[in-house]
Design goal:
Layout (H helix, E strand, L loop, with lengths): L9 E4 L5 H13 L7 H14 L8 E2 L2 E4 L6 E12 L5 E11 L3 H24 L2 H13 L3
Parallel strand pairs: 1-4, 2-5, 3-5
Antiparallel strand pairs: 4-5
Helix pairs in contact: 1-2, 3-4
């Protein structure tokens, strides 16, 4: 297991989804790996961060993220919704990349965010169409190239 990424990146494909229920599904997909933190606590941290500062970073991409003191490394889930998820007035997002990380590793946290922003900036369309395993490997490679 890599010390930066705590597990393989997960990819979820959805036909129709709503923001909060999708974020809950993404958090739940990690709950078997983060047994020491209740899923409700993880979701609360993500939603609180979203309320403070919405994470839409491009017309197709949102990157909700949260830091929790209980986490030792980073967890990443990508959701793809071709019909779009409403992330605000007129913002139908097709890619949602959820990042959960530890509170005490600010430099690595910023590196993970920056590496994913670069990846999506150059390969957003490819990430929408790629097979789940390919999309997961692209995310993993982008993150690990920074560590």
């Amino acid at each position: 297991m890599d010390p930066l990424l705590m597990e393989p990146v997960r990819v979820i494909d959805m036909e129709k989804c709503f923001r909060e229920s999708l974020l809950e599904l993404m958090v739940r997909s990690l709950s078997s790996s983060i047994k020491h933190v209740p899923p409700g606590r993880l979701l609360q941290a993500v939603l609180q961060r979203e309320r403070q500062c919405p994470t839409v970073v491009s017309p197709l991409l949102a990157m909700p993220h949260a830091r929790l003191s209980e986490l030792k490394g980073f967890y990443v889930v990508l959701a793809r919704c071709p019909r779009g998820v409403d992330f605000g007035p007129g913002k139908k997002i097709e890619l949602i990349c959820l990042i959960l990380g530890p509170e005490g590793r600010q430099k690595q946290y910023l590196q993970v965010l920056a590496s994913l922003l670069r990846l999506f900036k150059h390969k957003e369309q490819k990430m929408i169409r790629a097979k789940p395993a390919v999309a997961a490997q692209m995310i993993r490679s982008a993150i690990l190239s920074q560590s």
